[in-house]
Request: fold
Amino acid sequence: MKKIVYKLFLVVVFILRKLPRSMERAFFRFVAYLGYLFARKTNKIIETNLNFVFNNSLSKSEIKNIQKYSYFNLVLWAQSMIENLDLTDEELKNTVSIENVHIIENLKKQGIPLIFISAHYGNIEMLSSYINRFVIPVYQVARESNFQEIDEFIIKAREASGSKIIFRSGAIKTLVKAMIKKEAVSLIIDQNINSREGEEVEFLGKMAYQSSSSANLSRKFGAYIIPIAIFNQNNYKYKIKVYEPIIPIKTEDEKEDIKRIAQLEANAISAIIYEDKKQWFWAHKRFKSHYKEIYEKNSNNK
Reply:
């Protein structure tokens, strides 16, 4: 059954690549709209998160707009992955601009290992493609699905831009090797995890757990952590922002060092989200570890 589904998937991808760009994008906008109409449980999670973080201060119309935008941004990742298969360097440079790229270039010249941290924010596919093609090749940690063939397609699509995809299970060994070689790695650190997997931080004004992998690597190998984000703009244009790096902290108190670095990371990601809140993917149950009850108030969130 999976082979049939995969072949159908490849047929759809083939057709979309042959369509005029305007028709292809219209198709994805329609898919996003259907998502908004029918994914009621996800809509409720988005609303719950927004009301929780912003203390019920957002209007219903603003929440509705963010819900719609979340689906648009989600399908935009898939759309861009397909479009990037045929995107030339010139087209990419005309589509994406970047601020403060000198921060990366200066650290690269010094031979300092780099850790990019980001969130499910803006068009992360375009972010990855641009950085890997024009700035620096990056090892990216990805979540493995239960559909091997689709995973292989995604890996090939992303690695076409120069990135090196590694799955989360067993990723640490590869990340350590990259740090030793003074290379760059990329981690998305905005999802909910449990207390055994990370550090407790304040994120968007609320308590949460956050992966400590980047903090551990930074402390151990003297790697600079660079917060980075891409902002969707009008007419399918994008702007990448590179932020001031988090300098590694290493004292005799390893536990406190990791905690301090993790909080600095949480501060950086929170600030990015506050810049334009609609571009973050609010559909994660981000605060479940500490505030499970907010997702249980409505039976649709089970």
